[in-house]
């Protein structure tokens, strides 16, 4: 289904030399140098440009909330969707600040809402099933999620977008994400769960027990698509598909926090070359995130103690991508500036 090629190595030496010849001590722009090289490789160009950034916030409800795994009621998912539509959430603020186009996607929330050009209907159902009792969704729903996501990316590509970010909103989704992480990596349940929206120690233990029960129900590890069917969220399945589709279209993919990184892990397990297109934007405060990033050998750009989701960490990293491209294109070399090397 996916045709994703590794990023080009053709110009790597040329770009490295260009970066090293800029008027700065060798390596002094640190992670920004790695980022500039990655973007240049993605675009197979020594003079990359970022055009028409687009973010999507995928929202979905989770049957696992019946187990009391979140600090907030599940109604908050739909209420926050209206907040996104009205422009009042953190992600709205950061997208406005950085001129990023933002769309909200109903991936499968339980309430009925009015769709518009900014609130898109990709609903796969009125929330997932409680994954302790049965699979969260069917494998057909996973495939629908992937094809909806592919269409969203194709639409953005047609309008000239080459950098995208994905956020999510779903009360209960840190438990779903932790379950997916455990299912595809084999990492033990208590290392995958965290406080999410702010549960106490007993809540964290409950989440670990929920994930352990799920592992017992499905008899251990699963491939990424089966894992999504077993314990996924509609928004996580759609983010996974969108990351794969964006990699297929050679876009820069801004990866947000814990839940988005689980989607990135699934995408990477489905098509390892997709990893080349991922910019890991921030280290979330969610406990399993460091361990998850290590699975992908990822070093995040920012560490701000954030744990909000919505794509907020990714939006904050967008100007760093702009800076990386700008220094590569605009900084003088030692030769140009007459500075001794
Ligand atoms: O992105 C993160 O790292 C992150 C970490 C903790 C919580 N969240 C957000 O909080 C919600 C899920 O938390 P919970 O406790 O309901 O599982 C969901 O809407 C996520 O966007 C997000
Ligand atoms: C208010 C609120 C906003 C959020 N945004 C993403 N997850 C969230 C969870 C809550 C509870």
TrEMBL record:
The keyword Cell division does not apply. SUPFAM superfamilies: Nicotinate mononucleotide:5,6-dimethylbenzimidazole phosphoribosyltransferase (CobT). It catalyses: 5,6-dimethylbenzimidazole + nicotinate beta-D-ribonucleotide = alpha-ribazole 5'-phosphate + nicotinate + H(+). GO terms for molecular function: nicotinate-nucleotide-dimethylbenzimidazole phosphoribosyltransferase activity. Pathway: Nucleoside biosynthesis; alpha-ribazole biosynthesis; alpha-ribazole from 5,6-dimethylbenzimidazole: step 1/2. The active site is at residue 310. Coiled coil: none annotated. Gene3D superfamilies: 1.10.1610.10, 3.40.50.10210. Keywords: Cobalamin biosynthesis, Glycosyltransferase, Transferase. Belongs to the CobT family. Catalyzes the synthesis of alpha-ribazole-5'-phosphate from nicotinate mononucleotide (NAMN) and 5,6-dimethylbenzimidazole (DMB). HAMAP family: CobT. This is Nicotinate-nucleotide--dimethylbenzimidazole phosphoribosyltransferase. It comes from Corallincola holothuriorum.
């Amino acid at each position: 289904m996916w045709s994703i090629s590794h990023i080009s190595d053709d110009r790597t030496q040329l770009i490295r030399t260009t970066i090293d010849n800029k008027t700065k001590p060798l390596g002094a722009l640190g992670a920004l140098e790695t980022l500039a090289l990655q973007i240049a490789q993605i675009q197979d160009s020594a003079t990359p440009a970022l055009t028409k950034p687009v973010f999507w916030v995928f929202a979905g409800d989770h049957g696992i909330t019946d187990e009391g795994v979140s600090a907030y009621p599940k109604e908050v998912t739909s209420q926050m969707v209206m907040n996104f539509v009205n422009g009042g959430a953190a992600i709205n603020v950061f997208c406005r600040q950085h001129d990023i186009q933002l769309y909200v996607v109903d991936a499968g929330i339980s309430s009925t809402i009015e769709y518009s050009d900014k609130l898109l209907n990709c609903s796969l159902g009125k929330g997932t099933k409680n994954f302790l009792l049965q699979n969260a969704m069917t494998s057909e729903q996973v495939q629908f999620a992937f094809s909806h996501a592919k269409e969203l990316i194709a639409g953005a590509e047609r309008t000239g977008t080459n950098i995208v970010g994905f956020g999510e909103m779903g009360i209960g989704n840190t438990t779903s994400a932790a379950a997916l992480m455990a299912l595809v990596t084999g990492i033990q349940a208590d290392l995958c769960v965290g406080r999410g929206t702010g549960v106490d120690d007993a809540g964290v233990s409950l989440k670990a027990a929920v994930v352990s029960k799920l592992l017992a129900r499905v008899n251990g590890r699963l491939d990424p698509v089966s894992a999504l069917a077993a314990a996924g969220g509609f928004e996580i399945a759609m983010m996974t598909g969108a990351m794969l589709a964006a990699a297929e279209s050679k876009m820069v993919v801004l990866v947000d926090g814990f839940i988005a990184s689980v989607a990135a892990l699934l995408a990477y397990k489905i098509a390892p070359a997709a990893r080349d297109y991922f910019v890991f934007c921030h280290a979330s405060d969610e406990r399993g995130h460091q361990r998850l990033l290590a699975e992908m050998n990822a070093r995040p750009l920012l560490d701000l103690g954030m744990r909000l989701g919505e794509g907020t960490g990714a939006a904050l990293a967008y100007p760093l991508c702009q800076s990386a491209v700008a220094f590569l294109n605009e900084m003088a070399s030692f030769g140009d500036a007459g500075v001794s090397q």
